[in-house]
Amino acid sequence: MAESAKGQGNAFFGILFAATVILILAGLLIQLFIVVVNVFSWMKRGSLKPGDQIITSLAITKVLYHTASLLEVFSRPYFGKLIVQYLILIKFTVQTLVISTIWLSTLLSIFFSFKISNFHNVFFLRLKAIISERVVYLIIASVVLTLGMSMTCLLLTFNIFSRNSTTGFLLNYDKSNVCDIFWNIFPLYMYFFASIFLIISLSFHIWRMKHCGNAISSTDTYHRIIKFTAISFLVCAVQITLNLTKQYGFRFFGVFWMIFIWNMFPILHSMSLIYINTRLRDAFFKCVYCGSSCLFKRNG
Question: Key word Transmembrane present in the record (predicted)?
Fold first, then answer.
């Protein structure tokens, strides 16, 4: 009985390990597809639109995140034999890239909110122009901010393990939790308000178009953006919830299930990005068509 249960456990671990690796590789292909399409567009036109710059930066961050997750997956079976510095480097890299993904997704939502909304207030128009003209600086600022957050959490974690007394351990552990909550909840609030603002603005715009007698088909783009906004906010909320409850998640689900779930939501976000972006969507369908045509020709 014990050997049978052990064999079943090993088989389940093997299936979960393979599923996690396949999911991460699929995520890598999707993110690389977004990067390659935008790079070709940049080479063809000589420049990228501000929104495409954020999308490309977000896709590159996700490529690095999936790569770090893949390294973590293959390192997990040998964690006991690996040096502490390597483990800390992997955890630091994964945590940094997770937070960077959240901040860049928040920036993308804010950018869409200002770009699509049709308010004519002077302050609003000025803020809209500033954001549109300084997207590159905002991307760099979000990366620097992410590194600062991760370094703070890393230093607090080092303090946790360097303290011998119980009082010192609990004090630093509480500080680490407060730091973790602040770095995650703050972008969530920004994301929430930007998403609500964007959905209300688009809904009001659709209502005006319908009452002005415009064709219903012309509102399809706005409906897609509303769906994307809702999905991306849910993805961000789930990611932040996982970040804040990761210790309980590791105990309840296990490490590989958590890695699987963590990598699934960035893929959903990227698929929804492909869905709303016309250039990405057309390129994706072309790739699917070419792949299916080559497959049918080989079989024929």
Answer: yes
The region of weakest confidence among 84-88, 104-108, 128-132, 255-259 is 84-88
Fold category of 2-289 in CATH: Rhopdopsin 7-helix transmembrane proteins (1.20.1070)
How far, in Å, CA of 277 to CA of 56, rounded? 12
- CA separation for the pair 169, 165 (Å, rounded): 6
CA 4 to mean position of chain CA atoms: 40
- CB 117, CB 200: distance < 8 Å: no
Degrees, nearest 5: CA angle 44-50-52: 60
Which helix H or strand E contains 251, and what residues bound it? helix 246-252
pTM of the model as a whole = 0.81
So where are the chain's domains? 2-289
- Measured CA to CA, the distance from residue 134 to residue 164 in angstroms comes to 47
